[in-house]
Amino acid sequence: VEVKIEVVIPEKERSKEEMSPNGKASPLIYKVNGTARHYHLEEHPIASNPYHNPKDVVEASVCHVKDLENGQMREVDLGCGKALLIKESGEFHAVGHKCPHYGAPLVKGVLSKGRVRCPWHGACFNIGTGDIEDFPGLDSLPRFQVKIEKEKVYIRASKQALQTQRRTKMMAKCISLSNYNLSSTNVLIIGAGAAGLVCAETLRQEGFSDRIVMCTMDRHLPYDRPKLSKSMDSHPEQIALRPKEFFRTYDIEVLTEMQVAAVDIKNKTAVFKDGFKMEYNKLLIATGNTPKALSCKGKEVENVFNIRTPEDANRVVKLATSKNVVIVGASFLGMEVAAYLAERAHSVSLVELEEVPFKKFFGERVGRAVMKMFESNRVKFYMQTEVSELREQEGKLKEVVLKSGKVLRADVCVVGVGAVPATGFLKQSGINIDSKGFIVVNKMMQTNIPGVFAAGDAVTFPLALRNNKKVNVPHWQMAHMHGRIAALNMLAHGMEISTVPYLWTAMFGKSIRYAGHGEGFDDVVIQGDLDELKFVAFYTKSDEVVAVASMNYDPIVSKVAEVLAAGRAIRKRDVEEVD
After folding, report:
1. pTM, 2 dp
2. S-S: 195 plus which of 31, 298, 455, 498, CB 3.0-4.6 Å?
């Protein structure tokens, strides 16, 4: 199918991508051995009149029926808050106007076949129900009643929903938690990142009311990990994905600072490092990855960091303020940390083996444009070299010596040279692991062992977009979707993954958005102006567009993601500008 992509450079985006905590999530009955069992739900299904308190309700005329064409969206004001009014196939729908993830204005997003996609990070919401259908984020949109009277469109809404702009779907609770044996659980989730949390929440949303235990090596409840490098002085409670009460309310147990040392698949038991054992019925492995360390001389000196926790990030900011920072690796983490510290530190130096940052991911031309932006913000690059030694004074880092012979002054060093899957504990388990250490799963996130699922950064899975090629996509949105698919298949829904990868990076107040899977691209078609950092780059392989990246060009990446999600091919000729 030939698809023409219309590219319109938007007016300057005024909304700031501010931080937002996450809020609420779906239906109910869970079948065990063919018998439907009903569970206690925290919220009841919406009755025909969902507004119990008349004082909480507002109703307003928002436009004439002819004001909106099919396929159009409009932000409308109800006096005490706004809603997004949508017209599709002759019908009007009204939902929350802000994406619950980071508050993006959905009116600037993409409407396609019954759902709206966020212009910033690609989350998708059903326009009829408000339910979240693709990620990132955990909450759905509130849905408002629409009625037509005398050619006028009215919206009836709860004032509270208009103000919060988010809705957590209905969730089951656990039945008779007190009867459980401490050392056995129905579902055990190893890892408490996005994949683990979404898996647990999806189980509860689907009415599952048995025991769920998540365990993590971290000392915190699940948090917004991308913020560690983008907003480094965030405290754990500021970036928590859910408050403590949420886990109590929905009976999701989280064991912190607990490391699994081995999995015994024969006896369906996880063995913890401290000797504690826990039996499970279904298992999700979502352990993510472990950062690679430097292997040079002096690597054990003080003030050298991999950023794994909020404490690491906070400590680096403290140590770096008005001091000299060296970052090793122009990875996403390395570049984001460099951008964050540039105005706080006395100097920021970045050491990288490649000649251009992001060359393999965004291509040389985009990489150079990004590099230029960094250089104009006082970041100094040392390319095509690596670290040969870290020198100390009184045990603390003093200098970083490069193989080129250059010596850099350094009070703190951040290492961002990649990561390896955290799967070492599975070596003798019988679970299929590939030569790079990734857990191999099918489209249902199942491993080769019945009842054992895996998700997130530690897996390779078949990507529908690339003819089911087994890939590893270590990004936040994908981890969410993996967790959801794993949960649905623990409940025997037979659901296959088909999402389009979507990611973003933020540096110096600017974002690069990216959708697709560009591995192995052989050409880049660029429209717009790289020098002005206002561009879209289409990554092609043979004649087909396999990925897209943009800066200051919303909502083009979300548009392309919707086309790819519909299974339609975009040809190179469709995106090449006509002279």
Report:
1. 0.90
2. 455
